[in-house]
Design brief:
nine-stranded antiparallel sheet, 9 strands, alpha+beta, Cathepsin B, Chain A
C-alpha cells in the first residue's frame, strides 16, 4: 500500500486553483468593509500575543471566540464591535483609535490592529484583510504593518487602512 502525503490548505491552494484568487482571499482572510473574516483576525491576535511575550496561538483565539460568539463567524465574519470587545479581553486596548492618534500611539510602542484595503470584488464591494500596524516613518509618511497570515511586513499610507476599525494595543497581555 502506498503511503499518501497529508494535504494542507496551502498545498491545495497551490495545486488545485479551482477558486478565483479573489474568492480565496475572502475564504482565507479577506473581508467586506466593516467585517473581518477569519483567519487573518486570529492570526493578528497570535502575532500581538507573541510580541508581548504570550504563548497563545491562533487556535486558542479562534476557539475562545467560537465559544463566546458561536462558530457562525466562519461564514459571517467578525464584526468591528466583536473585534473591539474580544481583543480587549486579552490585551490592554484603545478601541476605535482615531487616525490622528496613530503616529503617537505607535511611537510610544503600541500596535494597531486594523484592516488594509486590498481591492474591489466583481460586485463592486471593497474587501480588506486584518493586519497590525507596528510603526510610522515620518520621512515617507508610511505606516509599517505586519500581515500575520502571510508572515510578511510592508508599508502603506493611512488611506490604505480601514480607519473605522483601528484597535490600539499597547502590548500588554491580560491574564
Amino acid at each position: 500500500m502506498q503511503k499518501l502525503k497529508k494535504l494542507s490548505l496551502s498545498s491545495l491552494e497551490n495545486e488545485a486553483p479551482v477558486l478565483r484568487e479573489i474568492d480565496q482571499e475572502k475564504i482565507f482572510g479577506g473581508s467586506v468593509p466593516i467585517t473581518t473574516l477569519p483567519f487573518c483576525y486570529f492570526d493578528s491576535l497570535e502575532y500581538i500575543d507573541q510580541q508581548c511575550g504570550g504563548t497563545n496561538d491562533e487556535n486558542f483565539y479562534l476557539n475562545s471566540f467560537g465559544h463566546q460568539y458561536g462558530y457562525g463567524y466562519m461564514q459571517t465574519g467578525v464584526t468591528a464591535a466583536q473585534a473591539n470587545t474580544f481583543t480587549s479581553e486579552y490585551f490592554n486596548t484603545t478601541p476605535n483609535l482615531a487616525t490622528n492618534q496613530w503616529q503617537g500611539y505607535v511611537a510610544n510602542g503600541g500596535m494597531i490592529m486594523t484592516d488594509i484595503y486590498q481591492g474591489v470584488d466583481s460586485s463592486g464591494q471593497a474587501y480588506s484583510h486584518a493586519v497590525v500596524i507596528t510603526g510610522y516613518n515620518s520621512t515617507t509618511g508610511q505606516y509599517s504593518y505586519h500581515d500575520a497570515t502571510d508572515k510578511t511586513s510592508s508599508t502603506a499610507g493611512a488611506s490604505f487602512f480601514n480607519a473605522s476599525l483601528a484597535i490600539g494595543v499597547n502590548g500588554t497581555c491580560l491574564p
